[in-house]
Design goal:
The chain has five helices and no strands. The chain is mainly α. The protein has one domain: Fumarate reductase/succinate dehydrogenase, transmembrane subunit (3 helical TM bundles of succinate and fumarate reductases, Up-down Bundle), CATH 1.20.1300. Helix 2 packs across helix 4 and helix 4 packs antiparallel against helix 5. The protein starts with a helix and ends with a helix.
């Protein structure tokens, strides 16, 4: 039994972490999968940063007001739009993966990807306009 497990592990190719994001020579589905991984990591990092920022509330009203003033600057607004891009892409691509994975749209995967990405661009443009309109 132990030999069978050893031989099984010898059959599986060892893939470095960078292979997770290597999409050279692959189709749009591979790109979507790699971008979904990347946006997932980015959203997890954002969650941690968000909790750290919320801890400024413990420092009092003045500290929070200072943060809000900083958060309304152009660099932070651009970061907000990047966050929206990540959220929209990750969410819509997750819908695509769920539909394809359950067999609902397995034969329409490519079309579904592009339709959802067009919807994503429209949502992102609308959200970006709202973010920058709120600045003024």
């Amino acid at each position: 039994m132990e030999q069978a497990q050893e031989s099984l592990s010898d059959v599986r190719p060892k893939r470095p972490l960078r292979a997770w994001f290597d999409v050279r020579g692959h189709n749009a589905g591979s790109w979507a999968f790699a971008l979904n991984r990347l946006t997932g990591i980015g959203l997890a990092a954002y969650l941690i940063i968000h909790l750290v920022v919320l801890s400024t509330l413990l420092q009092g009203e003045a500290a929070w007001d200072n943060f809000i003033t900083t958060a309304k600057t152009l660099p932070f607004l651009i970061l907000d739009v990047i966050l929206i891009v990540g959220l929209v892409f990750h969410g819509l691509n997750g819908v695509r993966v769920a539909l394809v994975g359950t067999g609902v749209a397995a034969d329409k995967q490519r079309t579904l990807f592009w339709v959802l990405m067009v919807i994503g661009v429209l949502i992102t443009v609308f959200a970006a306009v709202m973010v920058f309109a709120a600045e003024g």
